[in-house]
Amino acid sequence: MIELEKIEGLVKILEASSLTEMTVRDGEFKITMSKLDNPPVVAAGAAVAPAPAAVSVSAEVKEEKPAEDDIEYIISPIVGTFYSAPAPDAAPFVRIGDHVKNGQTVCILEAMKLMNEIQTEFDCEIEAVLVSNEQKVEYGQPLFKVKKL
After folding, report:
1. 137 Cβ contact partners less than 8 Å away, ≥ 6 residues apart
2. Are residue 93 and residue 131 in the same domain, yes or no?
3. In this structure, what CATH number is given to the domain that contains residue 138?
4. Are residues 75 and 39 in the same domain?
5. What is the model's pTM?
6. Which of 11, 93, 98, 128 pairs as cysteine with 145 (C-beta 3.0–4.6 A)?
7. 93-121 b/e with 16+ CB inside 10 Å = b?
8. Could you tell me the pLDDT band of residue 37, with boundaries at 50, 70 and 90?
9. Residues 114 and 140 in one domain
């Protein structure tokens, strides 16, 4: 089962992006989110603060399997901007399916004009990249889903 904090993070990602629909699958758990097309109607002349983007969520849960012990996440140690490659025209540090060695750089997080290389603390395989290039990330936000080797 996916944690409530992760679902809230996914909602924030959808609201901040130009996407209209997003589906995330985590094992047997699948969640589909889409932005509603019709914004709330407000009477003319009413002074009302803008409402946050409305998001529709539907979840499909199948029989739960026990969590795998070797599934881990590489999380953001700081608030900053995520960069998947060392330069705009360069290949990403890692892709889904890559085997990564302990200490290998997987991304860069820019904070206050400082480029911080984020490295793995164990050998692993990249199973999912959870953020997009140049996306703002929070402290503790999962960046990569990995499987320990």
Report:
1. 76, 79, 80, 81, 82, 109, 131, 143
2. yes
3. 2.40.50.100
4. no
5. 0.55
6. 128
7. bbeeeeebeeeeebbbbeeeeeebebebe
8. low
9. yes
